[in-house]
Amino acid sequence: MLCSPVRISSAGRLPWTLGFVMHPIAQRTLEVLESAFRRLERQLPPPRYIEIDGQPALRYAEELIEQALIQKLARYISSLEAAQLLLDRGFLQEQGVLHRTLDELHEDILFLTVAITNDQVTELHRRYLAAFWAEEFGGADPVESRNDREMVPRNKMRAYVARVLQATSNPSRDLAVSKTIAKVYSGFVHAASPHLMEMCDGDPPRFNLRGMRSAARFADHEFDIWNYYYRGILSATFVGKALGDQPLVTGLFEHSLQFQEGCGRDFGARRPEA
């Protein structure tokens, strides 16, 4: 089994943080995700050193779609832990920036996984992967040799996933929700005034420059990070499915049930009826 049960009764459930002590189910989830990642990483041809502009650099020479997935998952897990560290110190604006990053990473992983598990690699995927694998520069001069990536519009990626999976009876609503979430967190990325004003409180009002643990918005960010832990479990599960590792997928599903119980949230994961 991927992980041992973590049982936390309702009476003994902890707040998210106690000083700088992470909630035990969050800590356990990071451990599970890293363990899952290491297992998946070993199943693929490893990166190797090649020469780029006269310098050694690690690259995946095969440029497999599965290797793209493992890189996206690595960044998801790293960014999730970084978001937790920012929350612990009250840097909520910066946490919001990472939430936007995590949203896009989760979408990327689902987009690539569906091509393997539910459909086939399409022209849209080939365009996405061409941009993903492209080097930033094509020569020694960073100004003259910068490569322009043909980025696939995110709305087309979302529409593809909704069409292939047909997860709900209202895919238009799903696309609208995804776009709304992206717009909300875009304000943190681009430092929009309404978002920046969340840094300000007190009487007289002043901007908090060293974290906002006492700010009214802290509870919202504290609550929201649970969603990104759960999506991390889903992202690792998607990659496990893409690589055909059913035992890992089963273990991650078991952990998702423990995660729901441990954090006291219902994310919809259910054990199948016997």
SSE order and pairing:
Elements: E1 17-18, E2 21-22, H1 24-41, E3 48-52, E4 55-59, H2 65-89, H3 92-117, H4 123-133, H5 154-165, H6 171-189, H7 193-196, E5 200-201, E6 206-207, H8 218-242, H9 246-263
Antiparallel strand pairs: 1-2, 3-4, 5-6
* Count of domains: 1
Radius of gyration: 20 Å
Strand content: 5-15%
- Structural class given helices, strands, pairing? mainly alpha
Largest sheet: 2 strands, antiparallel
Number of helices: 9
Molecular shape: globular
Order of helices and strands: EEHEEHHHHHHEEHH
Distance between the termini: 20 Å
Placed side by side, the strands forming the largest sheet appear as: 1-2
Number of strands: 6
Arithmetic mean pLDDT: 86
- Which range best describes the helical content: under 10%, 10-25%, 25-40%, 40-55%, 55-70% or over 70%? 55-70%
> Unreliable stretches, pLDDT < 50, 5 or more residues?
1-20
Determine the oligomeric state from the structure.
single chain
Keywords:
single chain, 274 residues, mainly alpha, 9 helices, 58% helix, globular, disordered N terminus
Description:
By secondary structure, the protein is mostly helical. It has one domain. 58% of the residues lie in helices and 7% in strands. The strands form 3 sheets. Strands 1-2 form a two-stranded antiparallel ribbon. Strands 3-4 form a two-stranded antiparallel ribbon. A two-stranded antiparallel sheet has the order 5-6. β1 (17-18) and β2 (21-22) form a beta hairpin.
Offer a concise description of the structure.
The protein is 58% helix and 7% strand. With 274 residues, it is mainly alpha-helical.
